[in-house]
Write a structure and sequence with these properties.
Radius of gyration: 19 Å
Order of helices and strands: HHHHHHHHHH
Shape: elongated
Distance between the termini: 71 Å
Helix content: over 70%
Structural class: mainly alpha
Number of strands: 0
Length: about 170
Amino acid sequence: MKKILYLFLALASYGISAQASAEEYLKSAVSKFYFDNMEGAIVDYTKAIKIDSNYVEAYRKRGLAKETLKDYSGAIVDYTKAIEIDPNYAPAYGDRGITKGKLKDFSGAIADYIIAIEIDPNYATAYFNRGVSKFYLGDMIGACKDARKAQELGDDASILIKKACN
C-alpha cells in the first residue's frame, strides 16, 4: 500500500495521474525536453508509446531527444518506427536524414530528403539539408540547385549558396 501511495504522489508531483493518457505523457515529455531533461523526456515518451504503440509523434520526439544525447542509432530506430507507422510523414524522414548526416551517411541522408520532398514539395529545410549532404559528397551543382530552391521557399540558404554556387 505504501508503494502505491508513493507512486501516486510521485505522479501527482509531475502533474500526471495514475491513469495518464499517452497524450499526457507526451506533454510531460515535451516539457522535460524543453528544460533540457532528455533522460526524463525519453522515459515519458516511452510511457506514451507503451500506452499507444502507434503514437507517431512520440516516436519522432523520442528520436529527437536521443539525437540530442548523441544516441544516433537509437534516434534512427525511432524515426524509422515513426515512418513505418505513417510513411506519409515528411518531418520523420527529414529528422532521420539529419541524423544520418551526423553519422556522415550523406547518401542515406539524401535518400530520406528525397522522400520528404516527394511528400511535401515545399519542405524548404529538406532542400537545404539535401544540399548540404550533396555539398559534402562533392556535388556542387546539386548542392547549389537545392540551396537556391530552399532560399526560394523561404529558408536562409545564403551560406550554402556562397559555398556551392561559386
